[in-house]
Amino acid sequence: MTSAPQDREIAVVAFAQTVHRRTSDELSEVEMLMPVLHEVLDATGLKTADIGFTCSGSSDYLAGRAFSFTLALDGVGAWPPISESHVEMDGAWALYEAWTKLLTGDADTALVYAYGKSSPGSVRDVLTRQLDPYYVAPLWPDSVALAALQAQALIDAGDTDEPALAAVASRNRAAATTNPHAQLRGPVPQGDHLVQPLRTGDCPPIGDGAAAVILAAGDRARALCARPAWIRGIDHRIEAHGLGVRDLTDSPSTRLAAERAGAFERPVDTAELHAPFTAQEIVLRNALRLGEDVDVNPSGGALAANPIMATGLIRVGEAAARIHRGACDRALAHATSGPCLQQNLVAVLEGEPR
């Protein structure tokens, strides 16, 4: 089991994010990121020099240039020199790397950030680059078409229908009404079919955004935050690359990651799920055994704001923020990467008893 040992507890002590927008043409990645980094540091009173490890998540494919993450480091600061790493993944996986770094005792604090600008190009085309390069990618099935394939599989299995999918979208965007950072808030028409059976309302908005969290270990976490969100367990698993050998109506990698993270040991009261498409929330709810008593995506989730490469980290941050302010006691955060929920990360966070 990959939960942290008792002598090295690690917590999320601060979280910040941008107001997610359809486009931010007037801002570079650095300009979009800097206010978030300042906000998350200010929340703890830390300076860059106080951070023991820095890890980021982004995609060169979105930016359209190689090693684009090195430019984003300008937002962190060139001096003093830092211990730094980067993952070509959603920031949730950068958080996983930072968590393992703190477990070793090499650092007591870590800054994790992620960002993505989806507006400059065609996200549906860019995401084809994560498909099997020999048999699938040359066919150019885009991300919406593949999500529609998964939705249709669920409908054919009798697990959902179009009205149920519309209800998922409606609930998420209604929840986002109270989220000042969400791109879509309140009622959003389902619209016409984009790729049957998915309508426009079943799909996430395209937008730009960034997020950051600070991790701290042990008593340092208690000194930096009145109610730290302790990471009781975290794990990630991946499924076969070939879509034809997977059951798209289920997510065994999510279930296994949740089991290894300790999610099934005791009930959670909140779940932040990285489900960009309505049908994916249904798959995840089943895999994670979430009942109606669990508050799912109180932030609105990825259907309300989907800054690619930051959305998964935001799920962890939103869950942690609810613990910080006493809105929940035990939360599950989920992140995904790849087509049709191919790779999944699950983290379990807890606040100390009140």
Descriptive notes:
The structure is a single chain. With 354 residues, the protein is an alpha/beta fold. It is built from eleven helices and twelve strands. It has helices at 29-44, 60-63, 69-76, 91-103, 123-126, 143-156, 162-175, 218-224, 252-261, 278-288, 311-324, and strands at residues 10-17, 53-57, 84-87, 109-117, 193-195, 198-199, 208-217, 229-238, 270-272, 295-296, 330-337, 343-350. Strands 3-2-4-7-1-8-12-11-9-10 form a ten-stranded mixed beta sheet. The protein has a two-stranded antiparallel sheet with strand order 5-6. A hairpin with a 2-residue loop joins strand 5 and strand 6 (198-199). The longest helix has 16 residues, at 29-44. The protein is globular and about 55 Å long. The two termini are 27 Å apart. The model has no long low-confidence stretch (mean pLDDT 94).
Strand and helix layout:
Elements lengths: L9 E8 L11 H16 L8 E5 L2 H4 L5 H8 L7 E4 L3 H13 L5 E9 L5 H4 L16 H14 L5 H14 L17 E3 L2 E2 L8 E10 H7 L4 E10 L13 H10 L8 E3 L5 H11 L6 E2 L14 H14 L5 E8 L5 E8 L4
Parallel strand pairs: 2-3, 2-4, 9-10, 9-11
Antiparallel strand pairs: 1-7, 1-8, 4-7, 5-6, 8-12, 11-12
Helix pairs in contact: 1-3, 4-11, 6-10, 7-10
